[in-house]
Amino acid sequence: MKRLTKKHQIKFYEEEIKKILSDYQSYLDSKCIDLLNKVELFIGTFEYIDELRNQVVFSFAKDKLPKTRVPLTATKPKSSEVIAKSFYDYSYSYYRKNGVASFSECYGVYYQELNGKYNVGFSNFDIEFLNSLSIGDKIVFGISDPPLKYYFNLIQITKNEVKSKMVDDIILGNYHLNDFNPVHIDDSLVLIEKYKANLHSQDTIIIQGPPGTGKTFFISRLLSLLSQEKKSVLVATLANRSLIELAKKYFEIKEAKKGVVFKSNLTLEETKEVKELKPIPKDFLPAEGNILLTTFYKMTGVAVENITAPIYDYVILEEASQSFLGTIAAAKLLGKKIILVGDPLQLPPIVNQANPSNISLDIDLMQESFTFYASTINCPKFRLTTTYRFSENACVQTNTFYENSLKSKSDIQESNDVFSKISPIYNNKGGCSLLYYDSTNLRNIYDLLLAQINALLQINPKFEIAILSSTKKGVKLLRDNLLHKFGDKQDQILINTVDSVQGLTIDFCFYFAFSDGSPAFSFKLNRFNVATSRARFCTLILLDEVYKVVQPYKGFVAEFISKCDLNNDTSFPIIIEETSNNDSLPPKTPGLKVIDKIDLSKFEKPKKEIVKGKENIYIIDTNVFVDQPDIISKIDHKYSVVLSAKVIDELDYLKISPSLSDEQKKNVQKAIKHINESFDKRNIKMVTADLALLPNDFNKKSPDNFILSVALRYKSENPIMLTSDNGLQIKAKGLNITTITLKEFMKQLKY
């Protein structure tokens, strides 16, 4: 069981605030003139509203254009004098506190040169902000405001100064992960019928919605029913986009009540996209049959306004996996009944601080609040099991994470000629395929993405396409090097982090698994599951070629990858060993445990890989050196060691690879040093590959097969393939070559 004190939870939120502020404070403290000169602050002139694209157009100086697709905060000065007089001497913080009349979040979508002006079209402006603008108004654009108020709200809810028992029951509860066994539901309409029959009497209901299983469809039908029953409903989620998708689904229902759906921070594009949607008036109060769509931030803000008893009949948390305990407590404070719709196997809340475990060893209760809550609470729990998004093949891949409980009812492959037109680098049955890239030459990957996306848009100009990265640095690289090249197609191409797109559905997806020094981060189960399940047609997973040698994934993610097609003649099989069941935690380092150096000269023990009467030659794979740099010193001098030239070549590359952690790079350097010393101290050889020895079916370009061919040279003398690569082990065993893993080898050593 896990439990956190209020002090620990408040400390967690405070550390989030500190981390966010530390990244933002230097920007706030900078003078506006310095930010303008560094092209980190922008002044635009309001020109017009682009009715065709539903975007707001501002003109800028040619050399002071903001980048597109980067979140910004637009501020309207209190008067024109604010900019005309001493604006340039202000710090940005002073300007925000003293010179701003109103503000809105936004982001640029496209560039345009028109009548000698350099224009940028923007999306996501609040309607209220737009209504305050006049042609010619000067607007200041700075980096997007961080979500600090959300965390302050969570602190207030956790303190629970209104002394709500419901809040304390959640905040101070004892939680475990042992009892999440949802009832499987094939058709979400069946769940609606269950609600009518008996679920309406339940205070809490949890619904797990794996990718593409119609969570939005279900919620929209439930909202229609609740509105007809004259219930007041608040629906909250982390991001705005899923609220719009929900509104669209709701208004597709013929019998749905019109004029009752309101949304906070309604934007111009949203009013065009869902014309029946209304902005929330300032004096908005819950009313019979009304539906309020809002964000976690806005919902928690309402919850801290001295509310002591529920004011809504229902509160529905969409994408509930991204909620904290405080978020769930806020929902409980506001709603007489709550429905949590989410998936413990998709994204948890975003955590910015580096070492939250310093607060408490049980801090994962904050990092995976919904997962713990859903497992512990005694209430009806359901899992939707029919996916309508992707093909049967994609469903087989995603089922890796869902005990094969999902079934595909997608018509994506029926009478659809798209699969016959796309490049062979995609899976022509739908789902994911793999493509390796050279991280020392990212230009090639940018060129490939540009060419592939242009080719897809030639097949269908209306395709929606996303390029996702696990890291912000990866997103910046992609945006800086690609986005401007798409011209007027920019609004069809989404480039963002995986953590920002839960709920997204597009046609094609590229997952750029860019490590930024932490390879396992891209392959954490929840993040990987979201990244690989966004596309209706195909997802191309872009992997650093270093991962052929050192694989940073394991468990269910490795099993998923083994089900993906491999391209560019880099195919190799992957078989999964038994691993720890805790896939929610990324490994501290990829590979096997490193054991301290042992003096073998004191001990003598028969080893299972040794054959009497043979020379017994150890051939060591690259991944072994990464995990155990001094492995040669642990092999008895009576046995020979032969190194494939390919292994030396790979190690030389790995020592500077950006895809390895600092610890792994140090290990590679140590390994190279040990090998160099071993050439002088003992009888080891470096041997080049003889590809003619390989069976005809084997890929002659595979690095593994280069190493395997060296072993085949010595087949009569019991070559011993020392490798932790399952694929290489299988090939070696198939050719009657002795194999042993590093883990098995080390276990044989006596201390």
Overall mean pLDDT score? Answer: 89
Looking at the overall shape, the CATH architecture of the largest domain is 3-Layer(aba) Sandwich
Classify the beta-strand content into a percent band: 15-25%
State Rg: 29 Å
Describe the main β-sheet briefly.
9 strands, parallel
Helix content: 25-40%
- Which ranges are low-confidence, i.e. pLDDT below 50, for 5 or more consecutive residues? 568-604
CATH superfamily of the largest domain: P-loop containing nucleotide triphosphate hydrolases
Summed up, the domain count is 4
- How many beta-strand elements? 28
CATH topology of the largest domain: the name is Rossmann fold
Secondary-structure class: alpha/beta
CATH class division of the largest domain: Alpha Beta
Descriptive account of the structure:
It comes from Paenimyroides viscosum. Residues 616-730 form the PIN domain. In the N-terminal section; belongs to the PINc/VapC protein family. This is PIN domain-containing protein. There is one protein chain. The chain is an alpha/beta fold. It folds into 4 domains: 31-146, Elongation Factor Tu (Ef-tu), domain 3; 158-387, P-loop containing nucleotide triphosphate hydrolases (Rossmann fold); 392-406 and 413-566, P-loop containing nucleotide triphosphate hydrolases (Rossmann fold, 3-Layer(aba) Sandwich), CATH 3.40.50.300; 600-747, 3-Layer(aba) Sandwich (Rossmann fold), CATH 3.40.50.1010. It has 27 helices and 28 strands. The strands form 5 sheets. The protein has a 9-stranded parallel sheet with strand order 7-15-8-14-13-9-12-10-11. A 6-stranded antiparallel beta barrel has the order 1-2-5-4-3-6. α6 crosses α13. The longest helix has 24 residues, at 6-29. Residues 568-604 have low confidence and may be disordered.
